[in-house]
């Protein structure tokens, strides 16, 4: 990266995380970036390492983890930060929204106190200013300022998630990490939350990393998508290209196994087998055991990221990406 | 599972995590239990053999821990005393655990009026000091171990039943219980085969803690001369008998049983709490 | 006229003054599959719980194969008879199995209760085979199994009773997409083999389209639309059904317009 360009909101390079008691790294060479004002979706199934990746950007890694590689937020190395720098990072630069807003809120405290507390505790703002800003943000997320006086138990899940978004924006973050923010919500509420995030991103030029298991949702909302499998990036690229012409058999299989409204009836193309066990070492491609295109090469050698012809941004880690089109997994 | 065990104020501060305290206490519990079991075979002297000529003698080869004011061997009395001192609390814990489980389970499962009646009546017992109840029962019933054990069982019952009730309420809300109901299993079947084994470790941990407290209470009663018959060796009774010896400057025969009571109570407390901790961590 | 597998007539249920289920009726033909679609608070789960007997209805009746379903009583025989009418698979595969009971024990318990004196070894193998679990899984405790495997166990347990109707309450909602597809295919196979009736409670229209013949759409305790699944999804009659359909993310999706439509409704 040249020093004249503004650094990415988030830049992860070769991130490798090993946990005690596992035979292979839970994250194995993850490369990912989110530019300022960009929406990036990180898609994967449970255990793929998608949540771990996003938490890494906040410097939140499980105790006992061995970390290699680099995580930079606006050019600052997160892994080299001292505890007080990390705290500053979490209040000023990066914010996170979780799947279950109820679990993240103290039921005995008013919503207003929750919003104000995060910024007044670090003395970045005085209480009066913070309260004014909280009221403003609640209106921005479509809530009445009177919600400041309500308790979490008095409002619905969708409203609480909007409160969480308002709370995340209190410190004017440059990067917003949303970990399955709509999974616990109804579909119509999900649409509202997503619309809100898009609007706020445009207004505040916040980089957004949207972690989800829902491919269709990722396709609908993001500029670029990363698909993770067993701790590695299987495929990455512009949302449209990736969904129209997947270059990794896993992405293709995942797309084929999603029940859709438009697709013809009959049986779904389920992916057989299970993701690889963390307790076993992995020599070749992690998807080889479940992949219809797998050859002896896949068992032996982990594939490199390859660029699609004519699309430098669209990459897939597959030996046989060229054979994918017209194959049984290409639905 | 977020079960909170009931502990008395002073002992609740004993932190058991990551310290050698736990294996030490476990060893002590084992040692005291072994002593109680094997006492009749390992005692060096007849615990009731009076030798007034040798009264209040210090430690010697024949009497390693000395003798008391009546010339009885302290070591033998301590060993045999462990029997009565452990048997009483055992009875208390057995009865209070079984009855507490039954009552707590019935209250939580049935709910409604039964829950109200059972919960109120156990609270009533809670409000009444256990020792006072025991003294009352003993004074009516007279000498013997049975009366104070029953009285203290009643006093300890609410600890178990209240804990059981909250555990069963939480367990009952889990879908697997609904699943068994849909399958056609009867309520008692589900309770005994599935709910009980899942809550038992926590309840037993509370019972282990109760064991220590019951030991303390029973020792207190026999110190007051209530309960244990005069000649039966018992730690509480030994402290009482040793009073005069302390006044004469020979504290060993009274201090030793005191030490044993305190150590045993602490040991049971630590073991119980640690057990509950482990169950909570293992839980799913 | 052949009997319907399941019939609900005018179900009502209120919690306090809030009606959770308000005049809900539907018919599930023998061997059919009916979806109940709705968002949280629509009353779909309460309806399911009334059907299986975990909740009582204030008014209305549930009939299985033409016979009114008793709400309680009848002792052991009544309990077992009710269990053989309707079985249920719950949403959370991590909580719907007793953590202490192994897969084989789970099935044996049910078989002992419902079919004492038959060859349980053979039946356990059959059931495991039917849900695609190897005999190796038989000794496993729930914590050793993945979410998809646990849900297979839950399905096997329900099938062991040989019920007329299987209620699936968001049974694939907690699973990963690839596993969800496996379970949906499994359920389709089982229906083909056994002619069991499915009552499928879900919020996911994609799932409804795959596994149901008929669908009812619920909102605030009431049925707002009912019909053949293909017809309802192709040409929704009620604005709420339309909103639900439009809310499903797809390329070119406009969440802002949906949010506006939702507020307007």
From TrEMBL, chain B:
Cellular localization per UniProt: Cell membrane
Pfam families named in the record: BPD_transp_1, OppC_N
Membrane-spanning parts: 21-43, 86-109, 121-139, 145-164, 211-232, 252-272
Topology within the bilayer: Multi-pass membrane protein
Alphabetical UniProt keywords: Cell membrane, Membrane, Transmembrane, Transmembrane helix, Transport
Domain ABC transmembrane type-1 stretches: 82-271
PANTHER family: D,D-DIPEPTIDE TRANSPORT SYSTEM PERMEASE PROTEIN DDPC-RELATED, OLIGOPEPTIDE TRANSPORT SYSTEM PERMEASE PROTEIN APPC
Family note: Belongs to the binding-protein-dependent transport system permease family.
This protein's name: ABC transporter permease
Organism: Streptomyces omiyaensis
Phylogenetic classification of the source organism: Bacteria, Bacillati, Actinomycetota, Actinomycetes, Kitasatosporales
TrEMBL record, chain C:
SUPFAM superfamilies: P-loop containing nucleoside triphosphate hydrolases
Keywords: ATP-binding, Nucleotide-binding, Transport
One Gene Ontology molecular-function label: ATP binding
Domain of life: Bacteria
InterPro entries: AAA+_ATPase (IPR003593), ABC_transp_ATP-bind (IPR050319), ABC_transporter-like_ATP-bd (IPR003439), ABC_transporter-like_CS (IPR017871), Oligopep_ABC_C (IPR013563), P-loop_NTPase (IPR027417)
CDD domains: ABC_NikE_OppD_transporters (cd03257)
Gene3D superfamilies, alphabetized: P-loop containing nucleotide triphosphate hydrolases (3.40.50.300)
SMART domains the record matches: AAA
Annotated ranges, domain ABC transporter: 6-245
Protein family according to the UniProt entry: Belongs to the ABC transporter superfamily.
UniProt name for this protein: ABC transporter ATP-binding protein
Native source organism of the sequence: Streptomyces omiyaensis
Organism lineage: Bacteria, Bacillati, Actinomycetota, Actinomycetes, Kitasatosporales
